[in-house]
Structure formats: structure tokens, C-alpha cells
Specification:
By secondary structure, the protein is α/β, with parallel strands linked by helices. Helix 3 packs across helix 10. The termini are far apart. 43% of the residues are buried.
């Protein structure tokens, strides 16, 4: 599995010198993936603790972020403490307080309250005033002394709309979550720009349906858009897109024969739905690596970037989009 000789594996497991760091890491990773227990000598002490706060795990993109960030932290010797919110459970502020009590060296917030424009940013300013290193993923707060890592939501909508227009769709709708969230507001902005550039539509308010970031939310939003005549629907998440497919079928329509659907995230297993989902891929691996690199730079006393690093998405074309139906 590691792609090396048995002699190299032996040297790694016995703690012998003469093995490159990358090779040693590949062997240890294979050991973990195969379910073997590491020899005592290879169980290195943790350099420190890092808090990782994610909003929930029902949307597959958040476990993916958690996995990638945790792996990057572990490879640098840090132990991640994962905090996941559930409705009615521990809040982000309570998790943050607990992490501080555990003496974490820093915190990565993924799609947290920093993304909610109705939430006070003072909680983050307070953390920075106390000297806590942190990185915030997918959500930007102007004036906050921290590193930000985001997907380019504006470009994502441009890719989606242009793809549908290239297939002959002239009535395109956007199914999104609540617009108080910065990524949603950016998607709406990007959608409006793309619709004007591609179809000459200057007022897109009618073609935007806001709901919840759930399958049921996607179903409700898509139903509204389909009833307005949309033959192409762009969704703010893959989960919402699955709801859109369900809505179309409930109305007796075929996907993609009658309605084309595009998701967002390229979540694990989404390529194996029926039909396989065309989606906009967030660069989760690159974004996670950048978030960890910025945080560890901050922890080591270096100057991590104080700007927002924005990562371009990628259109992944599968089976849920097709040429627009003929009248």
C-alpha cells in the first residue's frame, strides 16, 4: 500500500535511519489505514492541541473538511479536537470556551458564526485580543486580524450558469440557503452577474429561491423554481441538489431530460447518485492544507496572511445536466 519495499517498511517500523520523511509518512499512513497498531516507539508525543469547529456532519462536505484538516494537523504532530454542533446542543461559543480550557494552541473555524452576517464578530475580535491564533474557513469578516480561506462562490456561479446556458437553458434558477450567510450572499451576487452576462437578465430576484441547507430545503426551493418554468437549477450544496432531483421527480419530470440540476461541493459518493450529480467542486484538500499552514505559521510566530485566500472551484460534469428540453 505504501509503494515501498518490505526492507523499507522494516526500517520504518524498527525506527532505523536512512528513510526519507515522505516515505516514512507513507508507511505510517498505510499502517493506520490497514488497521495495524503502531509500535510503541512510533507513537510520537503530540506537539500540541488544535481546536476544529464545524457546524454539523450531516452535510458530507463538513466531514471531508474535518478529515483533511485533521490529517494535515496530525502530519505536523498536532492533535485535533473536533467540535461538531447539533441543533439544541453545544454552541460555537461554548465549544470555544471548552477548547480554551483545554489549552489549545489555535482554532480552525469552518463555516462558523463568522459566516453569519447577523452574528456579532466581537467573539473573534476578543479571541484575537487574547492572542489566540485562528483561521476561518468560508466566511469573511472585514477588519478581523486573522487568516481567511474561502471558496470563490462568485466564480462557482459563473461556471454553473455558463454550463447550463451552453446546453440551451434560458430559464435558470438558483436554490440557496438563508442569505444572511456570506457564502450565500456571494453566490446570489455571482448568479446575478452570470445571468446578466450570459442571458441578459438584469433582475434575477424572481429566479432565486432561499430555503434551508437540507434535502427538504432543496426540494422546496426547486419546486418553486420549476413551477416558474426553470429547466436548469443551480443549488448551493449537493444535499440541496438531491432535494431538487426529488422535487422534479415528484412533479413527474425527468432529470436531466426535463430539468438539469447542478450541485455544489462535490461531496463524497455524490458521483454515485442516480443520476450522477453534476456539481461545482470545492477544493477542500487545498483549502484545508492552506488553513493548517496559516495556523501553524501563526503558532510558530511567523506572519500568516491577513487577507482572504480565495480558491477557484471546478465544474464537474456528470449525468444530471443535459440539453434543454425542446418546447
Amino acid at each position: 500500500m505504501a509503494g515501498v519495499s518490505t526492507a523499507t517498511v522494516s526500517r520504518v517500523l524498527n525506527g532505523k535511519p536512512g528513510v526519507a520523511a515522505e516515505t516514512r509518512q507513507a508507511v505510517l499512513q498505510a499502517l493506520d489505514l490497514l488497521g495495524y497498531e503502531r509500535p510503541e516507539r512510533l507513537r510520537g508525543r503530540s506537539v500540541g492541541l488544535i481546536g476544529l469547529v464545524v457546524p454539523e456532519l450531516t452535510n458530507p462536505v463538513f466531514p471531508l473538511f474535518a478529515q483533511r484538516i485533521s490529517a494535515a494537523l496530525a502530519s505536523s504532530g498536532f492533535t485535533p479536537l473536533l467540535c461538531t454542533q447539533v441543533a439544541g446542543g453545544t454552541t460555537e461559543d461554548e465549544f470555544t470556551e471548552m477548547l480554551r480550557d483545554h489549552g489549545v494552541d489555535g482554532i480552525v473555524f469552518v463555516s462558523g458564526l463568522h459566516a453569519d452576517r447577523s452574528a456579532s464578530p466581537e467573539r473573534y475580535h476578543k479571541l484575537r485580543s487574547e492572542g489566540l491564533p485562528m483561521v476561518l474557513v468560508n466566511g469573511y469578516l472585514p477588519g478581523l486580524d486573522a487568516s481567511f480561506i474561502s471558496a470563490d462562490d462568485v466564480e462557482a456561479m459563473s461556471l454553473a450558469v455558463r454550463h447550463l446556458v451552453s446546453l440551451g437553458h434560458t430559464k435558470v434558477g438558483l436554490a440557496v440557503g438563508p442569505d444572511r450567510f456570506t457564502p450565500v450572499a456571494r453566490k446570489i451576487q455571482g448568479f446575478a452577474t452570470a445571468m446578466e452576462q450570459s442571458l441578459g437578465v438584469t433582475d434575477t430576484q424572481e429566479w432565486v429561491s432561499s430555503s434551508l441547507f437540507t434535502l427538504e430545503g432543496g426540494q422546496a426551493a426547486a419546486k418553486e423554481l420549476i413551477e416558474k418554468g426553470c429547466t436548469g437549477i443551480v443549488c448551493a450544496s449537493d444535499v440541496m441538489a438531491l432535494g431538487a432531483v426529488k422535487a422534479a421527480r415528484a412533479l413527474g419530470l425527468a432529470v436531466p431530460g426535463d430539468v438539469s440540476v447542478i450541485g455544489y461541493d462535490d461531496s463524497p459518493l455524490i458521483a454515485f447518485t442516480e443520476p450522477p450529480l453534476t456539481t461545482i467542486r470545492q477544493r477542500v484538500e487545498e483549502m484545508s492544507a492552506a488553513a493548517v499552514n496559516a495556523l501553524l505559521t501563526e503558532i510558530s510566530g511567523g506572519g500568516a496572511p491577513r487577507t482572504e485566500l480565495v480558491y477557484s472551484p471546478e465544474l464537474i460534469v456528470r449525468g444530471s445536466t443535459a440539453p434543454a428540453p425542446t418546447p
